[in-house]
Amino acid sequence: MDSSFFDLFGPSPPSGSSSDSDLRNGNDDDGSNEGIDSFGQLLHRPDSSNELVQKGIDFNRGFLPPEPQLGNIEYKLKLINPSKQRFEHLVTQMKWRLREGNGEAIYEIGVSDSGHLHGLNDADMTVSLQTLNQMARKLDASTSILRRKSLADHRSVVEVLVRKIPDDQHNIEVRVAVLGGADAGKSTLLGVLTQGEFDNGRGLARLNMFRHMHEIQTGRTSCISHETLGFDAEGSVINYKYNEMMTAEEISDRSTKLVTFMDLAGHRRYLKTTVQALSGYCPHHALIVIAAGNISNMTREHLAIIHALDISFSIIVTKIDLAPPEPILFELKNLLTSIGYRKVPYLISNQDDVLNANAHQSVEQIVPIFCVSNVTGAGLDLLIQYLYVLSPGISNAEKERLEQQPIEFQIDEIFRVSEVGTVAGGLLCKGVLTENSQVKVGPLQDGSFFSVTVQTIHRNKAPCRVVRAGQSASLSFNTVEPMPLLRSGMVILPDYETNDVACGCFFFQAQVSVLFHATRIFKGFQTTVHIGSIRQTAIIEGIMGAGDTGIGTNQSASVLFRFVRHPEYVRPGMRILFREGTSKGIGKVTQVFPLKQPLNSIG
C-alpha cells in the first residue's frame, strides 16, 4: 500500500502489522479498518492540486521540513550534558516556543535543523529526554511523549509535547464550533465525548445537550449549547464520567487543557443563529459533522461560511455503523480540492496521522477527516487524541498584546436570572475584565452608552474573578439607575472611554468582496450583516466606483451600509460577513460615521 506523503516519519507499516504507536495504545489491527485504510490511499495520493504541500517533504529519505523559524515546533539533534550557559539558552528558547504555541510546544529529539532524522541510541536519547524534562521543570512545564520512531542501527527519534499553563490561567482553552446539517449527529457526538457513554442508536446521548423542550421533542438544536471536555497532563480524558459527582467546575479545575464545544444548529431555519455564533464567539477551530450517506446543502453552506471566516476545520463522518463511508469520502475529496477551497483532504486512520495532521494543518491547508460511530465507538479514540493536541492557534505574544488594550466585550446572549437580574453572555475580544469594574454598555437607541458595574463573572459554568482577551464569559451587573433593555450585539467598554469612542452608528463603510450572487448587487440591496456578535439588516446606500453596473460574484468594491433598526458599535478593521438567501460576501470595515456626526459629512 502506498504511504501518505504527510507521514513525515516514514512509510506506514505494511499490511497486517501494527505501528508502535498502535501497540502502545493497545490498538491491535484486526482488519476492521481495512476498507478505510485502502480508501485512504485516494485521499493521500499526491496530485497536481497539492504539489506545494509535497514540495520539501521527502519521507522516503527520512526528512522532515526544515525547522520553522516561527511557531511552536523545535528540532534538537541531542541534548547531552549542556553547559550552564547553554542550558539557560535552551530554557529561554523553550520559553519562546511556548509563547508561540500559547503554552504548548512540540520538540523533535534526534532531528537536525535541516529536518534530517539522524536519531539517537537509547543511552543518548534517555539523557536528552532527561535534559528536556529539566528544561521544562525550570519553566514549571510538563512533558509527555507523543510518539517514537525507530530507525536503523538501534537509533530512534522521539516527539515530545511540552505544555505550560499560563500563570494567570487554570488551563489552556480551545474553543471548537460543531456544525453540520440536521440529523448529522452533532449533539449525539458531543454527548458521547462529554458524557463518556456511547449512544444507544436512538438519540440517548444527545439529550443532555438540549436546552429547550421543543429540542427534545424534535431532536433538533435551535440555539447555542456550550459543553466542555478536559484533559489532564498525561492526556487522559476528564469528563462527566470521571466520577459520579463530576461537575463542570471540577472538570475545569482538574484539567490542564480544556476543549469548549459550541453545539450549533443544523437546520436552515436557525442558520442566522449559527452564523452569529461563528462571527461573535470567534472559535479557534470547527468540526464539520457529516452523516455517512451524502453531503447536504446545509453542510455545503456551513463549509462556505467557515471558509469565508478563515476558520480552520476538520470533518467528522458519523454513522459509519449504518453506512460505509467510501461514497461520502469520494464526494468530500472532490469538494475540498475544488477551486473554491483548494484544501488537501487527509483521512485519519492511526495515531501518527493525528499528530502529522495537527502539526501541518495551518501551514499546508490540510483538512483532517475522521470516520466515527457514536454507537460502537469506532474512531472516537483518534478524534479524542486530536482534540488533546489541537492548539488554539494564537501565540502568547498576540494574546498579551490584546490583553493590554482597553476592554471590549461583545454581548451574544441575554438571560434573566431570579435574584440576580440581567446576565449577559459573550466574548471578551480585548483587555482584562475583573469583578467590580466600572464599564459602559451600549449602544442604546440614541447611540449613547449606559454606565454599570460588573458584579459577578462566570466561565465554564463556574464563578471566577477575572476574564481575559479571547475568553467567553457571563456577566451580571450592579446599577444605581434602572438597567436599560440589553440586546445581542451590544458591547461593553471601559467607563473612562469618551463619547467619541463609546458611540453607536447607523452608517459605516467597508471594503467587501462578493462570494456569490445570482445576478448583481446594486444600491438599495438589503442584506443581513454579521460583525462580531452584531446581526442586523442593513441597506447598501452606495457602491463606490461601480456606477450603474453594480458588483457581482468575485468582484470587490467599497460599500456604504446603513443599519435599519438601531445603531451598533462598529470600529474600523472589524470583519464583516453579509448574506441574503444564497448571496454571500465578506470584507472589512474601513470607516465609521458615529451618530453625533452630521450625515451630510458622509461620503
Automatic annotation (TrEMBL):
It is found in: Cytoplasm. Pfam families: GTP_EFTU (PF00009). CDD domains: GTPBP1_like, GTPBP_II, GTPBP_III. Keywords: GTP-binding, Nucleotide-binding. One of its GO terms (molecular function) is GTP binding. Residues 1-45 are annotated as: Disordered. Residues 171-397 form the Tr-type G domain. It comes from the Eukaryota. InterPro entries: EF-Tu_GTPase, GTPBP1-like, P-loop_NTPase, T_Tr_GTP-bd_dom, Transl_B-barrel_sf, Transl_elong_EF1A/Init_IF2_C. The keyword DNA repair does not apply. Residues 1-20 have a biased composition (Low complexity). Its main location: cytoplasm. SUPFAM superfamilies: EF-Tu/eEF-1alpha/eIF2-gamma C-terminal domain, P-loop containing nucleoside triphosphate hydrolases, Translation proteins. One of its GO terms (cellular component) is cytoplasm. The keyword GTP-binding applies. Belongs to the TRAFAC class translation factor GTPase superfamily. Classic translation factor GTPase family. EF-Tu/EF-1A subfamily. This is Tr-type G domain-containing protein. It comes from Anopheles christyi.
